[in-house]
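CHAIN AND CONFORMATION:

***
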Amino acid sequence: MILLYLNIIDLVLAIKTLDLKVADYMSPKPLVVKDNSSFSEAIQIMADTEIGNLVVEKHRKPIGILTERQILENLSIHKNISDVKLKNIKLSPFEIVSPTTKVIDAAQLMMKKKTRLLVFDAKRLVGIITATDMVRAFRRTTANPNLSKVRSTILHTVNYDDSILAASKMMYKKRIGSVIVLKNNKPYGIFTERDLLVNVLANDVEIHNPVGGYCTTPLVKSSAGIKGGDASKIMSKNKIKRLVLTKAGKYYAIVTARDIVESFTTSFSNEE
């Protein structure tokens, strides 16, 4: 009887999360730097605080967002971090939502525009909401969408002894945020844009060093049949943005935080 009562409470709470607002899940007071700041200074701030998005402003107004993807691109092209001003770098654009915007509406905007979202209260920047923030919200819902249409079954790999630069170039060329690292022809870990920022650049590591020494290991994985809600719980628990999926004992696919957000937006559209 007690268990039934608790299940009913959980169900009610989960249903209410469909109406949760951006204010409940955004990252408040995002870090902001001026556009005349140097690229290297901005990277150090991101590495020290372990954030993947840094808002860039001009005349006290946001003009774009510096992301891990721009860092990867710069390193891959120049083979080092060029000390240019942020105003000379092509920043990621953004869309604006308010604290009272529903998370699902923000998610649909993110998917439609394929962009980042800044949160403004009137004309004041108060937060940023990312795909990872949305995954935290969606894990509480009753929805458990299928991931078969959003996951990627193409797994890009590098060897443990390949250089950090080689891995970064592959990620840039393929427009992906991670590669699987093999050791003795077996999956050993995953090297991500965040690993490049925090494990490599923050510590002035030589980019010709073996990538295997700076990847995240062990791999967090689940079965290929896992649903979106269950995957979001695993990712939130392990504080990861990518989940490797297995099938018949072999690595089969990878699903990202953005993939999960996309699966939920489709699921909620069908429910409505």
Q: What stands out?
A: Confidence is low (pLDDT under 50) at residues 1-17. The CA atoms of residues 12 and 89 lie 47 Å apart. Residues 2-16 form the longest helix (15 residues). The longest strand covers residues 61-67.
